[in-house]
Amino acid sequence: MIRLVGVGPGSMKHITVEAIDRIKAADRVVAFGRIAATAKEIRTDIQVVDKVDEVSGTLDGEADTAILASGDPCFYGILDFLQKQGVYIDEVVPGLSSIQYMMAKLKKSWQSAALISFHGREAGIQSIKEHKTAVILTDSKYTPGYISGCLRDKGVKGKIYAGFNLSYDDEHIVEKRIGEEIGDISPLALVVIENEMD
Fold it and tell me: Is 90 a residue whose pLDDT tops 60?
């Protein structure tokens, strides 16, 4: 039995009761470093992996295994990768995404927002111009500061919110005008754009 368990944005406060139950009940638990550190508050025998492609190599088919994923594993998460590798997932336990967390912190609706991920992939910054609200998962190249500058260069005006280390003790959320400099406080970041569309 292979279960993919979403553990939320990072802090133990945001892991669901169902996720905790699955982590406790599993024979084996596999997780990445940051997630493993949080999960070790639930149990200490976590098998830590460094890269996504290492996960499928840890599966033996016999043990009841919980693979932990940050946020929600169905949204730009590890679910697609594992399925493409031919790994059959018996159950997915959803988790609170960083998007849900950030928008709640900002007290803003996001049902009509464009949802974009730059996590290890090229995505068109140009498409942000077409939406009043956009939420962007960033990476080490497309940082909040980089995105702010690119949008300014494309003539986008409005507000940009950057959330760093969301849900952790050192969480930091900043509000700027698009084009203003944003220090890259942490690689764990999310950006919300409010586009002042013509």
Answer: yes
